[in-house]
């Protein structure tokens, strides 16, 4: 039986398609100072394809006009990692030296800034310190609406298809020892500048095969069955 083959363009489109994004919400105004709308997280979306993790964060303010806020991304794959504050490593569990404690061991971290030219750094824990693996540039197209997006390779965070990780996302200032002013996975109001903050790492995400990969697998199976027919 003659079988039509997929074109190279269709194969590429299928293999690189992105899984449907998961949305994670946060309360409005759960910060100690209601004027810091650029640090008040409203929600985040995460998706992936075969190679990358796609993250967007939306805050309650125009972060194009008020762009000094920094973004913290904490990942725990359950393989052990850096602990923080009273739970272990001194002083904190992240290479940006922000005052955020979490009982979970952080085995990957990303920190980002959107002022100046913007940028982000991705790290993984090596058992005794953090290795810097990647520099990337955030997408600030919708910054005036409070939304910033990042594309980071799975490998830069030590992740692979099938991994499930706990995570949290925080906003902070630009100084050593600054706390997270808002944390995505809790509505608890953090104490604010000059104090510490605590993350429950209350959200999780599974790196799934993208729909195109599953479609290719199905097509391959169909083709195999047809060849045997």
Write structural notes for this entry.
With 229 residues, the protein is mainly beta. It has one domain: Sandwich (Immunoglobulin-like). It is built from 2 helices and 13 strands; from the N terminus they run αβββββββββββββα. It has helices spanning 8-15, 211-228; strands at 22-25, 41-48, 52-59, 70-76, 100-101, 108-113, 119-125, 130-136, 147-153, 164-172, 182-183, 197-198, 203-206. Strands 4, 6, 7, 8, 10, 11 and 13 form a 7-stranded antiparallel beta sheet that branches. A 4-stranded antiparallel beta sheet has the order 1-2-3-9, with no helix packed on it. Helix 1 packs across helix 2 (211-228). The chain is globular and about 40 Å long.
Give the N-to-C terminal Cα separation. Answer: 8 Å
Low-pLDDT residue intervals, each spanning 5 or more residues: 1-15, 213-229
CATH architecture assignment: Sandwich
Here the CATH topology equals: Immunoglobulin-like
What is the number of helices? 2
Shape: globular
CATH class: Mainly Beta
For the CA atoms, what is the radius of gyration?
A: 20 Å
In short:
By secondary structure, the chain is mainly beta. The chain is built from 2 helices and 13 strands, in the order αβββββββββββββα.
Task: Looking at this protein, list some descriptive labels.
disordered C terminus; disordered N terminus; 7-stranded antiparallel β-sheet; mainly beta; 229 residues; Immunoglobulin-like; 11% helix; 4-stranded antiparallel β-sheet
Tell me the layout of helices and strands:
Blueprint: H1 8-15, E1 22-25, E2 41-48, E3 52-59, E4 70-76, E5 100-101, E6 108-113, E7 119-125, E8 130-136, E9 147-153, E10 164-172, E11 182-183, E12 197-198, E13 203-206, H2 211-228
Helix pairs in contact: 1-2
């Amino acid at each position: 039986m003659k079988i039509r083959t997929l074109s190279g363009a269709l194969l590429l489109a299928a293999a690189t398609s992105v899984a449907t994004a998961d949305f994670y919400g946060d309360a409005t105004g759960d910060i100690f100072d209601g004027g810091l709308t650029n640090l008040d997280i409203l929600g985040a979306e995460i998706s992936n394809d075969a190679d990358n993790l796609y993250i967007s964060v939306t805050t309650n303010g125009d972060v194009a006009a008020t762009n000094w806020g920094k973004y913290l991304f904490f990942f725990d794959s359950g393989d052990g990692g850096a602990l923080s504050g009273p739970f272990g490593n001194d002083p904190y569990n992240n290479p940006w030296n922000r005052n955020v404690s979490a009982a979970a061991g952080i085995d990957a971290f990303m920190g980002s800034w959107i002022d100046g030219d913007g940028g982000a750094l991705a790290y993984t824990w090596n058992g005794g310190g953090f290795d810097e693996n990647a520099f990337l540039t955030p997408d600030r197209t919708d910054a005036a609406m409070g939304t910033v997006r990042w594309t980071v390779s799975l490998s830069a965070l030590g992740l692979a298809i099938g991994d499930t990780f706990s995570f949290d996302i925080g906003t902070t200032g630009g100084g050593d020892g600054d706390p997270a002013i808002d944390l995505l996975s809790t509505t608890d109001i953090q104490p604010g500048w000059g104090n510490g903050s605590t993350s429950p790492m209350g959200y999780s995400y599974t790196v799934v095969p993208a729909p195109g990969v599953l479609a290719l697998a199905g097509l391959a199976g169909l083709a195999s069955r047809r060849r045997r027919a």
